[in-house]
Amino acid sequence: MTGETWTVYLSGEIHSDWRDKIADGVASAGLAVKFLGPVTDHASSDDCGVHILGAEDNDYWKDHKGAQVNAIRTRTMIEKSDLVVVRFGDKYKQWNAAFDAGFAAALGKPLITLHDPNLTHPLKEVDGAALAVAQTPEQVVQLLSYVIEGTL
To answer: Which residue in 111, 87, 121 sits closest to 8, CA to CA?
Structure first.
């Protein structure tokens, strides 16, 4: 697919600059990549359902509404993507990221996971569905460069 623009969905933790590092690396490498991703403003992501559809007295229903509204974006963008990168961080349990990885795998989307080595055991099933397991954003950039351009 050299010469075509690839669409890459960046899923996962929202508390570090890993997305920026990948975007900067891709730009420096001159790769034709369009990035998609979830809403990374935590408060907006949590409150979108009740803000748009109305308040809830029970936190379960508040979270449920937000998850469903966010799923409209996530599912649509993963379906549009050529490749999905899912980042797992140490700070929070990213169950939504694991779901995104499973959804991408079910759609047959190529999947790259990105996480520190200390998460290898808890993510063994998710990594088993991935075509590559990276430990740094720089490795993701190298993977993208190789699969897009076909050169090392």
So the answer is: 111
- Please tell me the total count of domains within the chain: 1
Owning domain of residue 115: 6-40+77-149
DSSP string of 43-90, one letter each residue:
HHHHHHHHHHH---SSHHHHHHHHHHHHHHHHHHHHHH-SEEEEE--S
Separation CA 87–CA 117 (nearest Å): 12
Domain assignment of residue 20, yes or no: yes
Tokens read off for 84 = 């999905």
Each residue of 103-141: pLDDT tens digit? 999 999 999 999 999 999 999 999 999 999 999 999 999
- Model pTM score: 0.94
Report which of 34, 94, 104 is spatially closest to residue 74, judged by C-alpha positions.
104
Contacts of 117 (CB under 8 A, 6+ apart): 135
In a domain, 69, yes or no: no
Residue with tokens 């694991």: 98
Q: Can you give the CATH number for the domain in which 102 is found? A: 3.40.50.450
Per-residue confidence (pLDDT) for residue 2, from 0 to 100: 56
The confidence band for 151, taking pLDDT boundaries of 50, 70 and 90, is: confident
